[in-house]
Write a structure and sequence with these properties.
Layout lengths: L1 E7 L9 H4 L12 E4 L2 H9 L12 E7 L6 E3 L16 H13 L4 E5 L7 E5 L10 E7 L9
Parallel strand pairs: 4-5
Antiparallel strand pairs: 1-3, 2-6, 3-7, 5-6
Length: 152
Amino acid sequence: MIIYRITKKKHGPLDGIGGLYGPGRWHKKGNPVIYASEHASLAAWEKIVHISSFANLPDNLQLLKIEIPDDIAIQTVPESVLITGWDSFPFCTETVNYGTEFLRTNAYMALRVPSAIIKEENNIILNPLHPDIKRCKVISSVPFIFDKRILS
């Protein structure tokens, strides 16, 4: 499976360090985690919703294309977690707790979750502490610059 991630060049592509410094929809602060998407365009939308203006966008972004070997099982979030309001902000307790437990149990390396932005598409949460993360490969890393017309 091929997934995409937009991140700053200074960060390791699969280290998950960002999760240590802040919470997300699928994790509590203090847990290493990697957020990626099934499509490069969704990865871009996911990045955009987390900024308040283009002035806050770093100019050192890169688009990573990451390969997950086909024999690695990808868990899918159960429908029971996707309660009314799962996609709200602030993040709902059910998604945060489920994702945090997913990371801490370390049973799977990858978790498929629906995007809160485009419900018909999925994000992939990776556990950088799972041993299979070493089998994932960054196929390409290219500079990524948002077209300024998006937020004008």
